[in-house]
Structure formats: C-alpha cells, structure tokens
Amino acid sequence: MDKNIDLREFPNSVITNAVNEYIHNKRNRDILKRRYIDGLTYEQLAYQFDMSVRQIKNIIYTNKEELVKKIIIRCWNLHLYMIIYM
Questions:
Q1: What helix, strand, coil percent values describe the chain, rounded to 5?
Q2: Band of the pLDDT at 1, cuts 50, 70, 90?
Q3: Can you tell me the distance from the alpha carbon of 55 to that of 69, in angstroms, rounded to the nearest whole number?
Q4: Domains of the chain in sequence order
Q5: Quick one: pLDDT at residue 86?
Q6: Tens digits of per-residue pLDDT, 22-76?
Q7: φ and ψ of 59, to 5 deg
Q8: Of 54, 44, 39, nearest to 8 (Cα)?
Q9: Could you tell me which residues come within 8 angstroms of residue 53 by beta carbon, excluding any fewer than 6 positions away?
Q10: What's the CA gap between 50 and 15, in Å, rounded?
Q11: In this structure, are residues 63 and 28 in contact, taking their beta carbons and an 8 Å threshold?
Q12: How far is C-alpha 40 from the chain's CA centre?
C-alpha cells in the first residue's frame, strides 16, 4: 500500500461512509472526520479532544491505512460492477 496516499484526496462522502462503517470507536470516528473532512490540525484535535498530539497521531496513523484499503477496494468493486452491468 502506498504510504503517500492522503485520505483527503477522496470525496468527503466516501471518507465519511468509510469512517462510519469501519471505525467502531465513536471518539476515533470523530477524530478522523474532524481531521479529514474539517481539516483540523493535530494540535487542534488534541485540544478539542483533551488528548496529547502523540495520541491523536497514533489514532490517525493506526486507522488511516485500513481506511485507505477499504476505500480502494470499494472503488474497485464499483468499477467492476459498472464494467459488468453497464
């Protein structure tokens, strides 16, 4: 998986759906949405959630790669569906 893929390259609706579906911890969902939808910095997130910047970075790092994989798989499946049925 390309480590340089930025979730912000995907449409907000795709990010929101993936976060809602695959991230089960509400706090982590909120952090990821505030980062990738609202564009908050690590420092802003740390202040808002009363956590250290390091904790925020860990939450984002541990969830980002899995979200990117899920989004790419979903997009690929949609592409295949369109090829087969359209």
A1: 75, 0, 25
A2: very low
A3: 22
A4: 10-85 (1.10.10.10)
A5: 61
A6: 999 999 999 999 999 999 999 999 999 999 999 999 999 999 888 888 888 777 6
A7: -60, -45
A8: 39
A9: 42, 43, 46
A10: 24
A11: yes
A12: 13
C-alpha span between 11 and 70 (Å, rounded): 14
Residue the block writes with tokens 């049925």: 85
Copy the structure tokens of residue 51.
């956590």
Q: Which two tokens stand for residue 64?
A: 């980002």
φ/ψ region of 50 (left if φ > 0, alpha if ψ in -120 to 50, else beta) reads left
Those residues with Cβ within 8 angstroms of residue 56's Cβ, 6 or more apart along the chain or in another chain? 31, 42, 45, 46, 49
pLDDT at 6: 72
Residue 49 CB-half CA count within 13 A: 25
d(CA 73, CA 5): 14
